[in-house]
Structure formats: structure tokens, C-alpha cells
User: Fold this.
Amino acid sequence: MLNNKICDLLGIEYPILQGGMAWVATAELAAAVSNAGGLGLIGAGHMPPDPLRAEIRKVKEMTGKPFGVNIMLMSPFLKEVMQVVYEERVPVITTGAGNPTEFIPALKEIGTRVIPVVASVALARRLERTGVDAVIAEGMESGGHVGEITTMTLVPQIVDAVELPVIAAGGIGDARGVVAAFALGAQGVQIGTRFVASTECTVHPNYKEAVLKAKDRTTVVTGLYSGHPVRVVDNKLAKDFSELDRNGAPAEEFDRLGAGKLKAAARDGDMDYGSVMIGQVAGLVSDIKPVKEIMEEIVQGIPAVLARLNQ
Ligand code: TUI
Assistant:
């Protein structure tokens, strides 16, 4: 089941991509996931070009395997960051929070695999015509910036709408999730939250602890009416955001309240006024262990899940 088109496309052992989590997915996590047979990625987020270049070079030192960079399309440094991934010949890029069309031809020309994250059928269809290599169909179970459709309903609709291979994301954290995604027609999965609770992830310990402590209803989506829906732990910051949402505050006020808050959570461990972007699957995560063990647990768990289905 696992050795498929996505593995060939990306030159990896298992069709498991790591989520491109800004401030969380650093070189250490990316290299660990790639070394374990998946595709590790640096989450570029709002990173300026020079630190990103340093992070890319660090991954290259730490692994000889393919890796990627996730480009957040709302980044203020978007053009410069694209130039860096181009110059560094990054093997794979995933994109989020927008439409990457204008950047695709240059990247394709140097053989970089381009895999956008989409949250709707319409964008998947539009991007198929631009020559992307696959799409990541991300449901609203994910942490961070989300669309409005669940993984369960989005994945099969995108599978039916495009010829491209589809990678499922949102709510996947164990072997059951992987099998479910494949049952929906996906040929790969993207996993974020589960990898936050890993030894190699360099995020503040409080952030990892938040994943372990989370239950099914720990996260909420803020900004649903403001245009930037973001799934976060329901803390004091989230309540302030909900207040803005209820009052119909303008987008600038959301931006002002949100500025620097992901860093506050991920680097400084502020669990009250930081933005703790984790997915709903956190409720399933109960231990911190090395990436290699997480990967083995997922991969080796698949036969038992399949056997149960056939009983
Ligand atoms: O991008 C993500 N998740 C993210 S990005 C992020 S950083 C951030 N910081 C502050 C505020 C907001 C974000 C944290 N988490 N996931 C991929 C994703 N992309 N989910 C949804 C989308 C998406 C949504 C609308 C992609 C395209 C789109 O429309 C584009 C268009 O032009 O139609």
C-alpha cells in the first residue's frame, strides 16, 4: 500500500509528508522525518530569506535524503523566499494559504516538485492546469490556517475532480488515519501535530505539552468571520480573537492581535497569550518520542488496521 507514485515522485520510502509548521518545523525536525523515510520540510512561515537559507543548509548537512520547504504565501518576504528555494535547489516545495500559480514555471524548470496545499475542489482544479505535481487536500481538522471542509469530505471530492495524486491532511496521526485517508483515495498523507510531540522537534516544551494535554475539544477555529480562520488551542488569546470576531472588527485589528503570537507560543512557551496552532488529532497523541519511532509505529501499525477491516 505504501510504496507508490508519491514515493517515486519524491524519492522517499513512505508517502508520509511532514506538515510545514511555521516556527515549529525547523531543520532538526525536517531532517529527522526525511531520515526516517518520509519527507521532512522546513516551515518557512514569515521567515526572512537569510535565516531560511541557513535553515536549508542545515538540513542538507543533517540528511542526504530529499526534503522540502513549506512556503506560506502570505509571507511578507514571499518573492525573496522563493528566490532562496530556487537558488538552493530545494527538491520539494509545498505551499499554503494562497495560490502559488505565478511561481510554478520557474520551479518546474529546475525540477523542483511543487505540491500546493488546497482546502477546496475549485483551487485543486485550477492548480492542476498549472503543472503542479500533486495536491495536498487539507481538511479543517488541521492546526493553523484552515479551510471550512472536513478531511473526510474534501479528500474524495478532490480525488474525483483531478487526475493528480492527492495527499490527505488534517486529522491524521496514526495508522488508522493513514488507512482511512487511503480508503478515501489519497496516495499520501501529511502529518503535522503528531510530529510536534517528537524528541527532535525544537518547539518550546510547553507547546509539546499542549499536544499531550489536548482532548477532542481543546482547539477552536478563530477568525471564522474575518477571513483568516485559524485552528488554535482555546486559550486567552483565542478568546480575545473570538471577541473581535463577534464585534465584526476589521481585518487590521486581527492582524495586530495576531502579530508575533505564534513565535510567543512556539519559542517562548506562552500558552495563554501565544497562538498554539495544533490540530484536532492532538487528542490522540499521548507521548513524545523520536521521529523514527513515530514513523515506525505508524507504518508498522497499518497491517493490523487492514486485518481488522477484513475480519
Ligand atoms: O497554510 C496552512 N496552514 C497555516 S499557515 C500558518 S501561518 C499564519 N500565520 C498567521 C495567520 C495565518 C496563518 C499557519 N497555518 N495550511 C494550508 C492551507 N492553505 N490551508 C488552507 C489553505 C488555503 C486557503 C485558501 C489555500 C488557498 C486558499 O485560497 C487561495 C485562493 O486564491 O483561492
